[in-house]
């Protein structure tokens, strides 16, 4: 299981995480913040977390 958390105080809706996700697992929500489009597509690579210039997205893997 894993959690994908967006810190809305820091996220500036730049879409870098969405554009860089190699699995196309992210999309925008109705407010323009990133969210998972399909949890099954996410490989937990953490590229979104590593590339966010504002440290606003976190991928936390819980268990296996
Ligand atoms: S890269 Fe960071 S600041 Fe930009 S949309 Fe994604 S979470 Fe928000
Ligand atoms: S962890 Fe990787 S596959 Fe999952 S949303 Fe982030 S960039 Fe995409």
Q: Could you give the distance between the termini?
A: 7 Å
The total count of helices amounts to: 2
Parts with pLDDT < 50 across at least 5 consecutive residues: none
Radius of gyration: 11 Å
Which structural category fits the helices and strands? Answer: alpha+beta
Side by side, the strands of the main sheet go 1-4
Largest sheet: 2 strands, antiparallel
Q: What is the molecular shape? A: globular
CATH class: Alpha Beta
Binned strand content: 25-35%
Give the integer mean of the pLDDT values: 95
Amount of helix = 10-25%
Q: In the CATH hierarchy, what is the architecture at level 2?
A: 2-Layer Sandwich
Q: Can you tell me the number of structural domains? A: 1
Keywords: Iron, Iron-sulfur, Metal-binding
GO molecular function: iron-sulfur cluster binding; metal ion binding
Organism: Candidatus Sediminicultor quintus
Protein name: 2-ketoglutarate ferredoxin oxidoreductase subunit delta
Detail the topology: elements first, then pairings:
Elements: E1 2-6, H1 16-20, E2 26-28, E3 34-36, H2 47-51, E4 57-61
Antiparallel strand pairs: 1-4, 2-3
Could you characterize the architecture of this molecule?
The protein is α+β, with helices and mostly antiparallel strands and 64 residues long. It has a single domain (2-61), classed as Alpha-Beta Plaits, CATH 3.30.70. Helices cover 16% and strands 25% of the residues. It has two helices and four strands, in the order βαββαβ. The strands form two sheets. Strands 1-4 form a two-stranded antiparallel ribbon. It has a two-stranded antiparallel ribbon with strand order 2-3. The longest helix has 5 residues, at 16-20. The chain is globular and about 30 Å long. The termini are close together. The structure holds iron/sulfur cluster (2 copies). Keywords: Iron, Iron-sulfur, Metal-binding.
């Amino acid at each position: 299981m894993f959690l994908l958390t967006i810190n809305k105080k820091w996220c500036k809706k730049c879409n870098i995480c969405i554009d860089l996700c190699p699995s196309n697992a992210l999309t925008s929500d109705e407010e323009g913040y990133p969210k998972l489009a399909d949890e099954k597509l996410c490989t937990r690579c953490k590229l979104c977390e590593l590339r966010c210039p504002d440290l606003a997205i976190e991928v936390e893997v819980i268990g296996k």
